[in-house]
Design goal:
The chain contains one helix and 23 strands. It starts with 17 loop residues before the first strand and ends with a strand. The chain is mainly β. The strands form six sheets. A four-stranded antiparallel sheet has the order 1-2-3-4, with no helix packed on it. A four-stranded antiparallel sheet has the order 5-6-7-8, with no helix packed on it. The protein has a four-stranded antiparallel sheet with strand order 9-10-11-12, with no helix packed on it.
Length: 290
């Protein structure tokens, strides 16, 4: 469009593993390592690691045919995700150049199926969800003797962890309470307990992103009319509707629906909503504080 400013972009298409599709899911802090999944020449979905020097590389499975990488540590050394084993179960994995793909053990907790969704900056703490007696439960895994810890729920049947702070001390996600409602939660290593972050006046909420220090959490929650709205949570202010906080930035009819991630310093929030000017669902970038 005439008059539109040009950004100094450099776009690199990552290709596939011989099949017809791929999807990037995570990137290291310096942008040098990308992870995700791609279809190989046999039509199988496989986890990949991409660097500019080596291109896209299949990082294997746990003995089965399929794997997916969901996240990578900030330092680029550790990849997490899930993969099928030879016995037909899918299990969370941790991959490093030195050890390759290693299953995250959860059988002692009854987690014969599990998915890793996020990893701390140095790769030592991994969070996700595993099946326990037919229900998903959030877990946190640490190396050494720590192993996999079931974080439980908020009194209901299921939960899942979706994000972790840089040092692994704060985990966020969603869990069902005793009334069957899904609620955003914040779990800390110090307390060992889930904190219900509440809602915006409705019944349900979900946490998706957390800042490096664990102080800022973002996600989506139902308001008093049952509509989903993007929110920002801090210990000092609790859960706040971004549509209210940023009302002067929104044109009539525009709505911020879901906040998906927050920058490491907690200043920038990304997600999606409805842009009334175009009538489309669009992603947004919000700078909410200095």
């Amino acid at each position: 469009m005439e008059g539109t400013a040009k950004l100094p972009c450099q776009l690199i298409w990552l290709g596939t593993l011989g099949g017809g599709e791929s999807q990037a899911r995570g990137v290291s802090s310096d942008g040098s390592v990308v992870v995700g999944w791609a279809i190989n020449e046999n039509g199988r979905k496989r986890a990949f690691r991409w660097t500019e020097s080596d291109g896209m590389q299949d990082i294997g499975t746990l003995g089965g045919s399929t794997s997916v990488a969901t996240s990578i540590s900030a330092d680029g050394t550790t990849i997490v995700g899930w993969a099928y084993t030879a016995d037909g179960f899918y299990r969370a994995f941790r991959w490093t150049c030195k050890q390759g793909m290693v299953q995250i053990k959860g059988s002692k907790l009854g987690m014969f199926r599990s998915i890793a969704s996020a990893v701390s900056s140095d790769g030592t703490v991994i969070v996700g969800r595993g099946l326990v007696s037919g229900y998903w439960h959030a877990f946190v895994w640490t190396g050494g003797s720590g192993g996999m810890q079931n974080l439980g729920t908020l009194g209901g049947s299921d939960s899942q962890a979706t994000g972790v702070s840089a040092d692994g001390a704060v985990v966020v996600g969603l869990a069902r309470n005793a009334d069957g409602q899904l609620r955003a939660f914040r779990w800390t290593r110090d307390t060992g307990e889930m904190q219900d972050l509440g809602t915006l006046g409705g019944s349900n909420s979900r946490a998706r992103g957390v800042s490096a220090d664990g102080a800022v959490i973002v996600g989506t929650a139902q308001n008093q009319t049952g509509n989903w709205r993007a929110y920002l949570w801090t210990q000092e202010q609790g859960m706040q509707d971004l549509n209210v906080l940023c009302a002067d930035q929104l044109s009539d009819g525009s709505v911020l629906v879901h906040a998906r991630a927050v920058s490491t310093d907690g200043r920038f929030i990304v997600g999606y909503g409805k842009n009334a000017a175009t009538g489309r669902q669009e992603g947004f970038l919000l700078h909410w504080r200095e």
